[in-house]
């Protein structure tokens, strides 16, 4: 039996399950496809079977809010050139099994080195519009003359692997997600030191034409205003110095995941402690 939650029988098991809320009651580890599942192995089959039934009943009688759908996704937002991709690259490198990237759709052209299906799904305007009409997206936006969107499938693909889903999206997409009760993500805003430094970094990246660069800088002013306004994001990561910015991002995420984990561990532990064998 696999439920989207964490079951920990000890503090060390809780520590081991630092990232996912997957939960599995079984005596057989190979039975579960999910990663970093915490297993509860019971001494005999009969007892295990009864606990499975007990937990299934307990979980199904709870309202949906208590049984979460896994770890909260992480949305990272900030002006073009603020350092989102650079920070995320470091995060994926440090925690390859914990975080998974939500691969967006876009109508912009690939840059050298960008792979279809890895960095983006590069599509035509017609394909994008068709997919929007079919209701395939959680959110969409137009940025600097190109369409972008997060498909339901992109997020599900990551969540099905038991990973924390990471979305790199701009402000209008963030607003759409904030206004829906869909993802309930943690919201991170990456703030550059100044517009002047942002311009230097964007020019240094050598990915933009002069026109696209000016569009990005114009949008950046509004984005910084919205992003740094109190209450719009859970944290603002100031990216003056890359090492410090990464440390701030990392610390925030780890703290948040531990908090989420702690809440679930407490919740499931109390369920298990109420379990009486053979009373299902
Ligand atoms: N709303 C929304 N924004 C996206 C999505 N994918 C990327 N973006 C944002 O689109 C903007 C432009 O991205 P990109 O063309 O890759 O340029 P870069 O940010 O300068 O590297 C960035 O602010 C991204 O965060 C998406 O699926 N939805
Ligand atoms: N703290 C920093 N100091 C100097 N350059 C940085 C810093 N952070 C990122 N960069 C550089 O700025 C450019 C834009 O960063 P990038 O991660 O591509 O931004 P974004 O994904 O937000 O558009 C890249 O060339 C990157 O190497």
Automatic annotation (TrEMBL):
Keywords: ATP-binding, Cytoplasm, Kinase, Nucleotide-binding, Transferase. It comes from the Eukaryota. Pfam families: Guanylate_kin. InterPro entries: GK/Ca_channel_bsu, Guanylate_kin-like_dom, Guanylate_kinase, Guanylate_kinase_CS, P-loop_NTPase. Its main location: cytoplasm. GO terms for cellular component: cytosol; photoreceptor inner segment. Monomer. Interacts with RD3. It is found in: Cytoplasm, Cytosol; Photoreceptor inner segment. Its EC number is 2.7.4.8. It is an enzyme of class 2 (transferase). GO terms for molecular function: ATP binding; GMP kinase activity. SUPFAM superfamilies: P-loop containing nucleoside triphosphate hydrolases (SSF52540). Belongs to the guanylate kinase family. The keyword Transmembrane helix does not apply. This is Guanylate kinase. It catalyses: GMP + ATP = GDP + ADP. It comes from Anopheles arabiensis.
